[in-house]
Amino acid sequence: TDMFGLALKEAYDVGLLVTSDADMIPMVHYLQDRKIKVINAAWRDTGVDLRAACWASFILDDIMDEISLPRLS
């Protein structure tokens, strides 16, 4: 809902959607029809249809070592 509300206020040009839920595809189309680019981040082998609907995407598996926090002992 935040992505919709902020889009109506023209508060951003690019949105990052971290999910593989295909139910988000209509929202992606809505936003992109309004010239808001949507980037999808998801796990490998999930959310293929959502990824295809987005302007760009990346696979979380590929960057986990870079974004993971060190474990506390």
How would you briefly describe this protein structure?
The chain is of the alpha/beta class. The chain is built from four helices and three strands.
Largest β-sheet summary: 3 strands, parallel
Distance between the termini: 38 Å
Q: By helix and strand content, what is the structural category?
A: alpha/beta
Unreliable segments (pLDDT under 50, ≥5 consecutive)? none
Mean pLDDT: 91
Order of helices and strands: HEHEHEH
What is the count of DSSP helices, taking H or I runs of 4+ residues? Answer: 4
The order of strands across the largest sheet is 1-2-3
Rg for CA atoms: 14 Å
What is the molecular shape?
Answer: globular
Helix content: 25-40%
Quaternary state of this entry equals: single chain
Overall strand count: 3
- Note the beta-strand portion: 15-25%
Descriptive notes:
The chain has 73 residues and is an alpha/beta fold. It has helices at 2-8, 25-33, 48-53, 64-67; strands spanning 14-18, 37-42, 56-59. The model has no long low-confidence stretch (mean pLDDT 91).
Task: List the defining traits of the structure above.
73 residues, alpha/beta, three-stranded parallel sheet, 36% helix
What order do the helices and strands come in, and which of them pair?
Elements lengths: L1 H7 L5 E5 L6 H9 L3 E6 L5 H6 L2 E4 L4 H4 L6
Parallel strand pairs: 1-2, 2-3
